[in-house]
Design brief:
The protein has helices at 2-33, 80-87, 131-139, 174-179, 208-217, 247-260, 280-291, 308-326, 332-337, 348-360, 374-380, 409-429, 451-459, and strands at residues 41-43, 68-71, 74-77, 119-124, 127-130, 170-172, 184-193, 200-206, 269-274, 299-305, 343-345, 363-369, 397-403, 433-441, 463-471, 477-484. The chain has 488 residues and is α/β, with parallel strands linked by helices. It starts with a helix and ends with a strand.
């Protein structure tokens, strides 16, 4: 046991050192490749000669060997310049274009407000000023040219916010997502203690620090390193908390084990998880489906999250990890892929094996992003959608899952309407036995959402609600089951 603890500590120290080296090397290249020009920001750091502006000093660090990434089917090795492009430039410098850091270049009208935590000074027409002073003068109307600082475009919101549009729903192809997987992913396992002496269930999750490294290394415009990886758990309309696992998702896993396994997986099953994020409840259902007799039933998983980056960086990797760990002992290629501790190599053989397993065992994975809306439900049940009308002799069992999805009044309203619309469509189109399983905190302090408000609202819409679990230790949480009332 002591050796295991020491090994984990050593791995943690290595990861911290790697992150520190990556950032330090990026700052080194930034300082050595540019000279101060109009509008340029200067990092807060002292160099060897104690030059505050950091132009004559040098920082010498050992080189860092970065991970080989796979992007759109092509392998490439990222470098320090690429890392800096995705980590520092977006904090306030204009896009450098094809050349990483041409020196010198002029300030652009697209420059964002500088972050005073990262930069100490900014050069203006009157000379160098502190960042805080420059921002204060801008707010007071001094040195502010409206023609060069246009109003920012409205950001799409995950929930109905006055004056803000929603991010339109979109369907993502599994094959395209697999082609953008990195060469390897680091992971840890979450051990869930099941109720009624059900034992322990291990659910793998991609490490958050590994997601950070990939975001810092990639150049794709849709990957925003700051979203979901900073100090904020949620930014409405920007990031809805999908990179992290929340307490109620574990509660939902326990409830599904007690009420939904294994009997419902003996027939065709549809699992729809809204606001999936790390998708712990769906991963549990996926494990139980793999443990069932192969080829006996169809099992469809629909994973929906507001952020496409969450689906690409967390949700799909977690499904691959769950499949790989489940078949690790039976497949030689997987044993080789797990050669490094707590890491899985995503070789073409592994990714092809994952797709083949889904196809031959009657399982499908579908991914949707965007805000909850009527258009979202229409896409879900369109002819090309994941829940198009099935041609089955026996109606399937449908599970609609949601954990920590009602943490604000806006979220509560949109989630309730979406749940009711899906339950009605399931009943009308496939005649399935559909139920919604919702896990949440009894009260979200400071933001206004609560499980009781959800129950009150959905009960007014001809829906039967059953409280199946209540957690009183620590933060009060609960799980409810919702089903449409039978027609009179």
């Amino acid at each position: 046991m002591d050796e295991c603890i020491m090994a984990k500590r050593r791995r943690a120290r290595r990861r911290v050192v790697l992150l520190a080296r990556l950032v330090s090397c990026a700052l080194e290249d930034f300082l050595r490749s540019r000279s101060p020009t109009e509008g340029q920001l200067v990092p807060k750091m002292r160099c060897r000669n104690n030059e505050q502006l950091g132009m004559q000093g040098e920082i010498r660090l050992p080189p860092v060997k970065l991970r080989l990434m796979r992007n759109n089917g092509r392998d490439r090795r990222t470098d320090r310049q690429t890392l800096l492009s995705s980590f520092l430039v977006r904090q306030g410098n204009p896009d450098p274009g094809p050349a990483m850091f041409p020196a010198p270049h002029q300030a652009s009208s697209k420059v964002a407000e500088p972050d005073s935590r990262l930069f100490s000074k900014i050069r203006t027409d009157q000379g160098w000023k502190s960042t805080k002073q420059a921002l204060r003068e801008k707010k007071d109307g001094k040195e502010f040219d409206a023609s060069t600082h246009p109003e920012p475009a409205l950001k799409a919101s995950a929930f109905p916010v006055p004056g803000k549009p929603q991010l339109p729903p979109a369907k993502h192809d599994l094959g395209a997502m697999l082609s953008c997987m990195p060469s390897k992913i680091a992971y840890s396992t979450l051990n869930v203690v099941l109720d009624d002496d059900g034992g322990t269930m291990s659910l793998p999750r991609r490490e958050l620090w590994d997601v950070r490294l990939q975001l810092m290394a990639e150049e794709a415009d849709e990957a925003h390193p700051g979203e979901g990886l900073g100090e904020h758990d949620v930014k409405t309309g920007v990031y809805e908390g999908g990179f992290k696992s929340w307490e109620s998702s574990v509660d939902l896993v326990k409830v599904l084990h007690a009420h939904g396994r294994p009997a419902p997986l003996n027939q065709d099953t549809r699992i729809i998880e809204l606001g999936c994020g790390t998708a712990l409840p769906s991963l549990a259902m996926f494990q139980w489906a793999m443990a069932s007799q192969p080829g006996q039933q169809q099992c469809s998983f629909v994973l929906a999250d507001y952020n496409p980056s969450v689906l690409q960086l967390v949700t799909l990797p977690n499904f691959i990890l769950t499949w790989a760990l489940h078949h690790k002992q039976s497949l030689v290629e997987l044993q080789d892929a797990f050669s490094l501790e707590d890491e899985l190599e995503l070789t073409p053989v592994v990714l092809e094996g994952f797709e083949t397993y889904l196809r031959t065992h009657g399982m499908t994975l579908s991914f949707l992003s965007g805000g909850w809306s009527a258009e979202f439900v229409q896409l879900l049940y369109s002819d090309t959608g994941p829940l198009a009308t099935p041609s089955l002799d026996v109606a399937p069992v449908s599970f609609l899952l949601g954990a920590e999805t009602i943490y604000s009044p806006f979220a509560l309203e949109a989630f309730t309407e979406t749940v009711l619309a899906i339950l009605e469509r399931e009943k009308a189109t496939s005649g399935s036995h559909a139920s919604a399983w919702v896990a949440a905190k009894c009260l979200y302090f400071g933001v206004g959402g609560s499980l009781d408000d959800f129950v009150d609202k959905i009960e007014q819409r001809n829906t039967i609600v059953t409280r199946v679990r209540e957690e009183t230790v620590g933060v009060r949480r609960g799980v409810v089951r919702c089903a449409l009332a039978p027609a009179e």
